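Subgroup meeting minutes
Present: P.N., E.W., G.H.
Scribe: E.W.

1. P.N. recapped why we're keeping a running log of single-chain structure predictions: easier to compare across weeks, and new members can see raw inputs and outputs side by side.
2. G.H. added today's entry (477 aa).
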Amino acid sequence: MRPSFDEMHANSATVREHYQTYDRWLAQQPRDVMKARREEAEMIFRRVGITFAVYGDKDSGEGTERLIPFDLIPRVIPAGEWREMEKGLRQRVTALNRFIHDVYHGQEILKAGLIPAEQITRNAQFRPEMMGVDVPRELYSHIAGIDIVRAANPDGSGSYYVLEDNLRVPSGVSYMLENRKMMMRLFPELFSDHRVAPVAHYPDLLLETLRSVAPGGVNDPTVVVLTPGMYNSAYFEHAFLAQQMGVELVEGQDLYVKDGFVFMRTTQGPKRVDVIYRRLDDDFLDPKVFRKDSTLGCAGLVEAYKAGNVTLSNAIGTGIADDKSIYPYVPKMIEFYLGEKPILNNVPTYLCRVEDDLKYVLDHLGELVVKEVHGAGGYGMLVGPAATKAEIEDFRAHLVTNPSNYIAQPTLSLSTCPTFVESGIAPRHIDLRPFVLSGAEVQMVPGGLTRVALKEGSLVVNSSQGGGTKDTWVLED
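Output recorded in log:
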């Protein structure tokens, strides 16, 4: 595996140009001051209640609620790099939305033989209930979180790759916003010295996007955020975004369907709901159509949705495009629907359901990252170089038993960014999740959520696996 690309240092003696002002400032900060700032940040985050629920976490003294560790050293991206990434994100999300529409309508990409039909029709995320259903603006994923990593090239430069597409209920944007507020509070002088592109207007863009996909003929749409409730791992974010947009946070029991329309119960009486930003999976939305035992959704919701009387963001069935077994086909989608070459590349991927790919993977398990196609949060995966022989052999048995459930990728050494850890400032691996909004237009705030693997050498950045977050600075020209 090649050495990691260092975001801040070109080599041991040279700091990259876009980090030089920050580097001079950092060199003047006493360690005890930085430590005190970190403790202050933790105290404020805890007071505000910015926590992440970890299911089944029996060993933590904090029960199931944890603070996501916040790192004081920002990840900095120069303006030119961001412009190119933004173009690639627009292109990718546009093609993915075209693909989802096609899957539930003409299925032209299947007829063209670019994706095997069984990859769609037998996929757990395919919702036959959505066949022929028209949605506003033919948009399915209004909020997408695209995970991007940077790996080193042989010449020492770095290239960005899309690691995965999160198109169902991507989370983390509240941490992006709170991290920026925290940095501005702790280090206001840094924002005088750097032209950092703002992100605080994200809730305004989100509300604008949601209103723009309301059912036809609705001039002043009522938007709500639908949460599974306070025990969900991302409940803080649900409440935060509702509050920031100035809309109601509702649970399934607050909604009902009458005459094909959705209403919420309020102290002033029933109020029609036009757009639901739902933060729960398809299976729990409507007990009449999906899981009969679900108490989290609203009976009759799908009927109102198919009648065109309410918009769900994101649409039912969107998961077909963020399944890891579909990910390898996204470059073909971009060419098929847009007639363009991909701006952002995929990580090379082996499909374990393909006999030759499976043979290669089984022969090289110790070198690869193997993931469940429906897995999330860093679970259900094998990081070959970090695994024991016993773990590799155990995973081999799963792979042989059910190969179509897995994909494999080379172990990319994610780029590193200086991080303030107990031993001082040290490099830690990072990724980036920009949030792409698709409505009347495709929009995003500059940057996104940078996640950092706080354990030395670890490549797993997920919050549920002990990862932390950083503020992401896109520098303006």
